[in-house]
Amino acid sequence: MTTTLPHIPTLETERLVLRAPRMGDVQHWCDFTATSRAEFIGGPMIADPAKAWRAFAHVAGMWMLRGYGSFVFALRSDPETPIGMTGPWHPIDWPEQELGWTVWNADAEGKGFALEAATEARRFAYEDLGWPTAVSYIDSRNTRSIALAERMGCEVDANAKAPEAEEGEVILVFRHPAPEALQ
After folding, report:
1. N or C: which end of the chain has fewer CB within 10 A?
2. Which residue(s) pair with 73 in the sheet?
3. Mind listing the pLDDT tens digit for each residue in 53-89?
4. pTM reported for the whole predicted model
5. Can you spell out the DSSP letters for the chain?
């Protein structure tokens, strides 16, 4: 049997490299998902490292199944050490294509890395994938992600449908500016 693997581009910004997920990233991901910082993506997963592994495999598998997915991002000066993940995302049961992000390393927060990476991922989704629109689904308690979405020019789209929420969650749909609005 021959499997055709998708081409996963490597993107660069002034300070970052956005690249394909790798096996060497798994421990960094697991370390992140074991903390309370992973609260809004199903964590912490410390009691179940197999759940963290399956979540990471889901991320990598999106590339195979959709032809796009999340990039792991790292400093250009240290491209092997991931500090987060961002990119186009679309689980089968979600209403729209999303741009998502996580910052894995607490020391990397507050330095603009997530903004820089997510802006480049949005450019990729619009220019390379031809997306006409994108949303970011954000838990209403996730103030850091809300602030990032707003810095990216997103606004709450009250008419857009959100993915099914867990009990007690309120998921906001942040609409990204259209590609032509970013020209």
Report:
1. N
2. 18, 84
3. 888 898 899 999 999 999 999 999 999 999 999 999 9
4. 0.92
5. ---PPPP---EE-SSEEEE---GGGHHHHHHHHTSGGGGGGT---TT-HHHHHHHHHHHHHHHHHHS--PEEEEETT-TTSEEEEEEEE--TTSSS-EEEEEE--GGGTTTTHHHHHHHHHHHIIIIIS--S--EEEEETT-HHHHHHHHHTT-EE-TTSPPPPPPTT--EEEEEPPPGGGG-
